[in-house]
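User: Second chain of the day. Same drill as before.
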Amino acid sequence: MRITVATELDYDYIRDRDHHILEDLILPKIKGNEIYMLKNEEETSFGWIRYGYFWDNTPFMNMIWVDEPFRGKGVGKQAVLFWEDEMKQKGFKLVMTSTLANEEAQHFYRKLGYRDAGCLMLANEPLEIMFTKIL
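Assistant: Same format as last time:
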């Protein structure tokens, strides 16, 4: 696996698969280097990490996606560790993410050293668990 900063060439892949972001925000995120692409040996994309900033000063991983055939092989763990290292190199000492309480991802993040940091309750939605990790 190779992890690269997304470019405009990745726009269609992201637009067609990431249904949790407004289409108008994809290009600014690409231009801001806030999306990393997961690529196989043939340079075909099979996932991404998208992040932003909580309180405008703390890296917050908004989305990690790995296409189904590549799951369960440690790819997600490698991608998160890569992202954490990138954030550490940029001088950040803390990162954040979240997941819904009804998703298995909460266990994934805890195994990677993330700690529960609170929750958010929105109408008609499962509980959103917030996580932090000191780098």
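Residues 50 and 63 are 5 Å apart (CA to CA).

User: Great, on to the next one.
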